[in-house]
């Protein structure tokens, strides 16, 4: 049985050491989590698979790692200083704070209609558009919200609402010893901008021709108003992003290819069932987007929610970060909406030799959340299986490549020094292979040890017993120098010679 709610996953993560609230002994820090011994392995495995697929297995990709501290101008010209904000509102009575568009979404259609007609908004059900219209006239909005009797979901009564206001989601920090208006930088809210501003560097040092892309994985920070649902919406997260640069006109086909490629990747490599994934076509587009399609995953409790966004960002990014924009032949949308850049020292263009022209490349961006990927992998793999004896075992059926531990070596009897010694020797042998994460455990009986490894998603358990040592109770010696290998998913066991064990393990976890 799959996990019927997210709490099952949260509790498994805590029980087995995948993910914990950060700074827990001091009461935690909202929207911030730490990855424990199993969690960090799972996360690294997911990232490794992503990097392999998107960088090593392609001819047209380069990797990069850019800084987390970001010059404010990068985020000014990207549009984040002005536009990376959520609308907020407070109820003075209950002291509750809401995302304004979500508050409007949770009202009755009659309340929305009253507000829409007061602010001349055509579609009352477009609660995001309605929120923006009210945000434009905050003083009038405060009066209108009271007149329309907008309910606070906290107490079910009309609220004493403040003016709605925009709240920027970026974290600021001071750089250097002097705190003044010029001495701050931002913690990056996405990994993307580091790739745009390094476009020329990568182009120069790799001699790439279009189309080519840059990949980056790393931390991003967003001061989310309501972090929630475990690691689904956090303030410190990790992203895996690609900026794929193409000639204008080649963007739409490239976008479509990336959508299909990444949809397949989540299914084939991460093991998510196709029926638990959906494509969502955005109808309301961000200022930079020509087209955006999200890959949604069906998380327990939450339903279908965004796992990855794939946007056709046109020439917005390289155009916005360039000097002398008027000379670049930018698309109409970018020319109209991009801020005049007074600080960049570069024109982020590409010399299109066959056509003897300088162009600003278009960008296709697949952007996925690592934490949401880890959560999806855990949700998909979680299974409660009722055994013949009525016992329920929790098993994480992770693809072996994602499993935090590949092999657990377990002695059948921990009070038999020879069995313990042999088990440790085998663990060392597996460990010396260098790339197979293995553990030794003798802290419980064998049944309990198997259950523990099932919950950790370990595909193979190796057991050393009397037969291994040639001390079989029936006096036979056929099984000397062999071990039992137990498979997580089927619980089937087979006997494997120690000399063949490493090759056998490699074959099983490929
Ligand atoms: N560069 C484009 C960009 O950052 P986004 O849709 O805002 O686009 C990309 O973010 C992905 O990052 C999302 O699909 C999601 O998986 C993840 N993500 C965004 N905000 C997040 C948050 N607060 N917590 C966890 N993951 C988040």
Number of helices: 17
Largest sheet, if any?
A: 7 strands, mixed
Number of beta-strand segments:
26
DSSP strand (E) fraction? 25-35%
Q: If you average the pLDDT, what whole number results?
A: 95
Radius of gyration: 28 Å
Structural class, by secondary structure, is alpha+beta
Strand order of the biggest β-sheet: 3-12-13-19-16-15-14
Unreliably modeled segments = none
Which ligands does the model contain, each kind named once? glycyl-adenosine-5'-phosphate
Terminal-residue CA separation: 26 Å
The coarse overall form would be: globular
Helix fraction?
A: 25-40%
Features:
single chain, 510 residues, alpha+beta, seven-stranded mixed β-sheet, five-stranded mixed β-sheet, 17 helices, 26 strands, binds glycyl-adenosine-5'-phosphate
Explained architecture:
The structure is a single chain. The protein is an alpha+beta fold and 510 residues long. The protein has 17 helices and 26 strands. It has a 7-stranded mixed β-sheet. A 5-stranded mixed β-sheet has the order 23-22-24-25-26, sandwiched between helices. The longest helix has 20 residues, at 37-56. It is globular and about 90 Å long. The model has no long low-confidence stretch (mean pLDDT 95). Bound molecules: glycyl-adenosine-5'-phosphate. Residues 190, 192, 222, 224, 233-234, 237, 239, 241, 306-309, 365, 367-369, 371-372 line the site of glycyl-adenosine-5'-phosphate. Glycyl-adenosine-5'-phosphate (GAP) is lined by residues 190, 192, 222, 224, 233-234, 237, 239, 241, 306-309, 365, 367-369, 371-372.
């Amino acid at each position: 049985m799959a996990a019927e709610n997210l709490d099952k996953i949260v509790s498994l993560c805590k029980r087995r050491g995948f993910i914990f609230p950060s700074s827990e002994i001091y009461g935690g820090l909202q929207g911030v989590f730490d990855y424990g011994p199993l969690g960090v392995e799972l996360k690294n495995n997911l990232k490794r698979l992503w990097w392999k697929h998107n960088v090593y297995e392609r001819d047209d990709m380069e990797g990069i790692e850019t800084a987390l501290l970001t010059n404010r101008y990068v985020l000014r010209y990207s549009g984040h200083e002005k536009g990376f904000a959520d609308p907020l509102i407070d109820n003075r009575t209950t002291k509750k704070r809401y995302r304004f568009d979500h508050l409007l979404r949770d009202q009755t259609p009659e309340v929305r209609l009253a507000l829409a007609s007061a602010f001349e908004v055509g579609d009352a059900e477009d609660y995001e558009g309605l929120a923006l219209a009210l945000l434009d006239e905050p003083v009038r909005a405060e009066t209108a919200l009271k007149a329309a009797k907008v309910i606070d979901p906290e107490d079910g009564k009309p609220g004493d609402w403040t003016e709605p206001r925009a709240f920027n989601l970026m974290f600021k920090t001071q750089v250097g010893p002097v705190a003044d208006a010029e001495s701050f930088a931002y913690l990056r809210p996405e990994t993307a901008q580091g790739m745009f501003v390094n476009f020329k560097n990568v182009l120069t040092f790799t001699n790439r021709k279009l189309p080519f892309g840059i990949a980056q994985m790393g931390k991003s920070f967003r001061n989310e108003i309501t972090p929630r649902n475990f690691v689904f919406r956090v303030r410190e997260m990790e992203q895996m992003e690609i900026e794929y640069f193409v000639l204008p006109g080649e963007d739409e086909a490239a976008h479509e290819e990336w959508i299909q490629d990444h949809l397949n990747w989540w299914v084939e490599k991460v093991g998510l069932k196709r029926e638990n994934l959906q494509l969502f076509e955005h109808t309301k587009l961000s200022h930079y987007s020509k087209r955006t399609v999200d890959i949604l995953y069906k998380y327990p409790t939450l339903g279908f929610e965004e796992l990855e966004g794939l946007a056709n960002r046109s020439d917005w990014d390289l155009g916005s970060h360039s000097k002398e924009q008027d000379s670049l032949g930018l698309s109409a949308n970018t020319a109209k909406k991009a801020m005049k850049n007074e600080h960049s020292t570069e024109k982020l263009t590409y010399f299109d030799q066959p056509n003897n022209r300088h162009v600003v490349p278009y960008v296709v961006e697949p952007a996925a959340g690592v934490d949401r990927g880890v959560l999806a992998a855990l949700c998909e793999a979680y299974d409660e299986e009722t055994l013949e004896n009525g016992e329920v075992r929790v098993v994480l059926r992770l693809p072996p490549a994602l499993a935090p531990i590949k092999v657990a070596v377990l002695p059948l009897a921990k009070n038999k020094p020879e069995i313990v010694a042999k088990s440790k020797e085998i663990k060392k042998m597996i460990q010396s292979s260098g790339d197979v994460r293995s553990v030794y455990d003798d802290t419980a009986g064998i049944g309990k040890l198997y259950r523990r490894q099932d919950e950790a998603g370990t595909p193979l358990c190796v057991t050393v017993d009397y037969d291994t040592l040639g001390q079989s109770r029936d006096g036979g010696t056929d099984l000397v120098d062999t071990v039992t290998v137990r498979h997580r998913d089927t619980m089937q066991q087979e006997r494997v010679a120690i000399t063949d064990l490493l090759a056998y393990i490699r074959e099983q976890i490929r």
